[in-house]
């Protein structure tokens, strides 16, 4: 009996310690590029406005949700885009997905598909600085940077509504509504890049956790950005990972796995995978590193805007690559 108890203890200890990263060393060499302070400050301004000036954003705080939507629409318009709105009524009020389209030089039928870059703008009864004002800030700056660039394929920048509970993984989730419409219209998607919590980093040891078992293969410190894909999106995930890595001074980690692993499909990538579209989630891993997740303490001053600026530069290169395939 004592032997079995000891074996059980060893098993539980192994599971526990495998939730922490085992890789204590840094695989990514120091890079070259100086920090873009202007871009970092602009990202901070977006996050501040959305999470502090506006605050909690949901169908249950409709005035703030509407303000956030107005803020995003105004920025897209200021960058030169004609803004499209997809309206639907998940409750007794109207919700809207916000779309800005970067038109390609070729007809969509000739290119084989569109590129989607997206982030949700609602929050879970909290300020939602990392989750997900950070993703929206990166989305806006990507749209701004790419506004005057030439591409062959259409790139759609989309701010989705209602990603958070109680709409999470339901038919009333904003991205689910949008992607089902794409499927009905028989649209093709070359790539969907979902920005989900991209601003929280730590250089401290034991700051990064994982689902049990995965920690053996990944870093111990929360100093990297993750690219998450399912098996159907593995080629896309690898290309996005290498593209971001070329423009960052910190690590980029790729994970390809089953949606059943907690967190793998915990954002709008779920909606694309449901319809068989290639999609990846770009994320700081949210609750696996950020103790402020879905709490009132998820505030703007805790984020790293210099690293977010590098994410913008990396993803812009990825978007241009797919936009010109």
UniProtKB/TrEMBL annotation:
| Ranges that cross the membrane | none
For this UniProt entry, which residues form the secretion signal? none
User: What's the name of the protein?
Assistant: Aminopeptidase
What PANTHER family does the database record attribute to this sequence? METALLOPEPTIDASE M28 FAMILY MEMBER, PEPTIDASE M28 DOMAIN-CONTAINING PROTEIN
Show the InterPro entries listed in the entry: M28_fam, Peptidase_M28
Q: What's in the keyword line of the UniProt record?
A: Aminopeptidase, Hydrolase, Protease
| Any single GO BP term | proteolysis
GO molecular function annotations of the record: aminopeptidase activity; metalloexopeptidase activity
